[in-house]
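Revision sheet: C-alpha cells.
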Amino acid sequence: MKKILALIAILAIGFGSVNAQENLRWGVTAGMNVSNIKVSGFDSRVGFHAGVKAELGLPQVTEGAYMDFGALLSLKGAKVDGGAFGSIKLNPCYLEIPVHIGYKYAVSDNFTLFANAGPYIGIGLFGKLKTTGEIKNELESSIGTSSENIFGDDGFKRFDLGLGLKAGMEFSKKYQISIGYDFGLTETSDAGTKNRNLMISLGFMF
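Predicted:
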C-alpha cells in the first residue's frame, strides 16, 4: 500500500508539472476489455477499463507528435468453462498507467486519425479467483463454489509491466474511438501467466 501511495503522489507531481503546458489536454475514457493470460486451456473473458487521460503535444519533435498517458482502473483475467466438471474465473483488477508516444494526422478540421504505442505499468488492487463445481488439484477434490483473493500469498503478483498499441479516430476535437492491445511482459504468477488484453475505448477530451 505504501508503494501505491508513493506512486500516486509521484504521478500527481508529474501531472501538475505539465499542467501549465499550452499543448496539454485532459479527458476521460472508458470501454471494454477482452483479456486472457497466455496459458493453454484458458479462454478470454470480458472486463472493463475506465479512468482519466491526458495528451501532451510535442511540436518540438514534429508537428502531430504527442504523448498519451493516464491512469485507468482495468478489470482483466481469464476463465475456464468445464461444464459439469467445474469452472474457474480469474478477476484481477489493476491500476494501470500507460505512457505512449504517438502521432496525429488531421484529415480535416473535425476529423483526425491517431496511433500511439509505449509501455504501461499495472498495480494489482483487488480481485477474486472463483471456482465452481468439481475442482481438482494435486491435494484434493472439492465440489461447490469457492472464492479467494487472487492477489493472495499463492496467487497473482501485484506488479505488471507491458507494452501497448492503440489506434483510433477523433471527431470535433473532443470525441475519440480507439482500439488497442496490451502485451504483458512480466509473469503475473508462478504458473507463467502473462496478461493479454484487447481494448475498445470511448473518450472525451475537455
